[in-house]
Amino acid sequence: MIEAFQIVALVLVAASGTAVVLVRDPLRQAVVVSFYGSLLAGLFFAFQAPDVALSQIVIGSVGVPLMLLMAIAKVRKRELERERDE
Amino acid sequence: MSRRARLWLLAPALAGTMALVVWGFTGLADFGHFQGAYGNLLAKVAVPERKATDIVVSTTFDYRGFDTLGEEMILFTAVLGLVVLLRELRGEQEEEEEAHDDQEGHAGREHRTSDALRIFGFGMVGPTVVLGVYIVTHGTLTPGGGFQGGVVLATALLVVYLAGRYAAMRKVSPLPLLEAGEATGAMAYGLIGLGGLIIAGMYMKNFIDPGTKGSLLSGGFIPLLNIAVGLEVAGAFSLAFQEFLDQTILLRGDGGSE
Predict the structure, then answer these.
(1) Which A residues, 3 through 62, put their C-beta within 8 Å of a C-beta on chain B?
(2) Is residue B16 part of a domain?
(3) B79 in a domain, yes or no?
(4) pLDDT tens digits for B131-153?
(5) Residue B106's closest CA among B165, B31, B176?
(6) B241 is in which domain, residue-wise?
């Protein structure tokens, strides 16, 4: 039973990790990486590391995508301002 | 360098790495048969000695408490550096129109969130805080502890931002309190370690009676260290989120000169 859970978790992480690379738009990538982070938390849990899984849920599914989104927003804002100035 | 040349350079490096990885994997113990002496020893002695049922926590905060002190300081200095780097630089000023609008209660260029999202979000704040406090205080019993609980606590602030407006988050976020909390947590960890030096004769040695297995206050000074780390991590992450949001939403650079 536990092995089945572990295999499913591994396959899902591999698939979503590949998806992160295949999605080329940074904005969409931020959303996909959030899914990937949540699935990685499931993987840690399946391999009996609930302590790590707990921090991974927050950091992987919220923290990292949020940093990405804010960086993208900052860059776009600056681009818009440059266009407006010209 | 042309694309072709780069690929040619990559190929032997990739093959070499692959060979090393495969070679490394053949020497590993079978899946599920851990052979580390230190891990097996801890798994045997941790619960009888420290009465804390979460061996991961009694390892990080007690047996390897000194390592965790270093890790905590890494986070502390990282966020300190972030705050110093992102302080209001010359050429950046807070956008007056938005600051003005915030006080009036209107959103300037901000998008208003829907009522459903707002009610759901604000309803989530309380449970998130309770969950965070629970994870911090029950670190000795169940998976979790100071770091995990602290990060959950920090997201409570983010939920306010997602549900409402940036202005609402600025209003409820006690910036000086966050800074004080981060510093206090970092300092408390070091001071508790010093308590070990004074009372038990060794820095970071557990100097409080471990109590009974399964009770909330078991594990000696581990719950105290969990609270110190929870405070530090919650403060550090909230500060980091806040600084990044400030950068994105409030500040306007004067274009390329930064």
Answers:
(1) 50-51, 53-55, 58-59, 62
(2) no
(3) yes
(4) 999 999 999 999 989 999 999 99
(5) B165
(6) 54-84+113-252
